[in-house]
Amino acid sequence: MSPNRFALRRSRAAAALAFVALLATAAPAAQAADPSGAAAPRAAAAPDIPLANVKAHLTQLQSIATANGGNRAHGRAGYKASVDYVKAKLDAAGYTTALQQFTSGGATGYNLIADWPGGDPSKVLMAGSHLDSVSSGAGINDNGSGSAAVLETALAVSRAQLAPDKHLRFAWWGAEELGLIGSKHYVNSLPLSERSKLSGYLNFDMIGSPNAGYFVYDDDPVIEKTFKDYFAGLSVPTEIETEGDGRSDHAPFKTAGVPVGGLFTGASNTKSSAQAQKWGGTAGQAFDRCYHSSCDTTANINDTALNRNSDAVAHAVWTLSAGTVTPPPGDVYSTTTDVSVPDNGAAVTSPLAVSGRTGNAPAALQVGVDIKHTFRGDLVVDLLAPDGTAYRLKNSSSSDSADNVIANYTVNASAEAANGTWRLRVQDVAAQDTGYVDSWKLTF
Ligand code: TRP
Ligand code: ZN
């Protein structure tokens, strides 16, 4: 229990005596209300994914290709070495990893699946990318870029020791370039009972194209909005991905009824002048002139695009794996700073800061009031919203001769922003009796 949670600190009998002492004592500094004691843990924002880390993975994938005949293609040594590199990083970070084998074209292929322990096993969020290249090159944009961004996001989950509501699973697919072989194999071999647990699949295939566009898959609306919101926050316009729907590993998931989404910076299509105007780059040139060719090396990457998209991967993983983004009702904000109420005098206010919430206050905002006074009928009490709007809690009444106002009021504050400084305003409108605001609280 935090020290500034609401509490009646004095008995009624002691109140009158204590009141004299209080007037002589400097009031304690206003306490910032801390809702943390009452709130469920709020989803933390995703961290920035360090571009240098993502690029270090690309350097490793390039070295692997260079050491293995210039590619990382299905059935070649460079593919298995790529899998080993990614798997070692994940194992060291605390993932439960598994290699899923399949056969294509007479060669053994591998999917690498990495589960982050924890989360609701009946709600699984997956993010994946294909790790194979074509045989003509190292495949650094296609698809070292997606593979490295997903890897670094998985490592960021581990660094943060993220405890999302959903279970997180990351995947690196084999033999995408031969026709989505690995991802199809994975989906087809998932029992129906496991498929139905997938709440979403996020795909990242080519996200660092040198002449980049910013394309968001036009698929599941929630996933799509999550990406679009991220780019809107950067003031980077996006377009719907149109360079061949179904041409990457989200397709088998979509076919199986799993909500899908993803990002893409363009392959062999040509950037228009309108696109060059809003995104920069070169109009009349392919988004990736090295698509599926030997020049798809570490030189074939647009750092800005890779950086933005990597951060967007993390944003989506954090956002979509969290159950509750806004704090649940029941958060209590309180102040125990005493404010004296002058006899038959001007109104006084007691401030209470509310922060960290989203949206408006509830329609049944609870206002707990503890005012010590020797004739409560003298008092007019209002709640002031952050914008100054007054809500009457209590009128004066010359016949109401009891002590104190210790009461709970319900206010429809749904027209008011939750965050800001709320005030309790108290005025003593008749002579002879005095008192003070002992404490008050808001329950959202
Ligand atoms: N590897 C994909 C392919 O060759 C690249 C690609 C083309 C793509 N169009 C796409 C990826 C659309 C995602 C979305 O087919
Ligand atoms: Zn590809």
UniProtKB/TrEMBL annotation:
Kindly give the PROSITE patterns that the UniProt entry links to this protein: P_HOMO_B
Is Metal-binding there in the keyword field? yes
Its needed co-factors are: Zn(2+)
* Cellular component terms per the entry's GO annotation: extracellular region
| Keywords tagged on the record | Aminopeptidase, Calcium, Disulfide bond, Hydrolase, Metal-binding, Protease, Secreted, Signal, Zinc
- Give the SUPFAM superfamilies listed for this entry: Galactose-binding domain-like (SSF49785), Zn-dependent exopeptidases (SSF53187)
Question: What molecular function terms (GO) are annotated for this protein?
Answer: aminopeptidase activity; metal ion binding; metalloexopeptidase activity; serine-type endopeptidase activity
Query: Can you cite a GO biological process for this protein?
Result: proteolysis
> Cross-referenced Gene3D superfamilies, in alphabetical order?
Galactose-binding domain-like (2.60.120.260), Zn peptidases (3.40.630.10)
EC no.? 3.4.11.24
P/Homo B domain location, by residue?
A: 326-444
Q: Which InterPro entries match?
A: Galactose-bd-like_sf, M28_fam, M28_SGAP-like, P_dom, Peptidase_M28
Cellular compartments annotated: Secreted
- Signal peptide span: 1-32
Q: PANTHER family from the entry?
A: METALLOPEPTIDASE M28 FAMILY MEMBER, PEPTIDASE M28 DOMAIN-CONTAINING PROTEIN
Instruction: State the protein's name.
Output: Aminopeptidase S
Q: What organism does the UniProt record list as the source? A: Streptomyces fulvorobeus
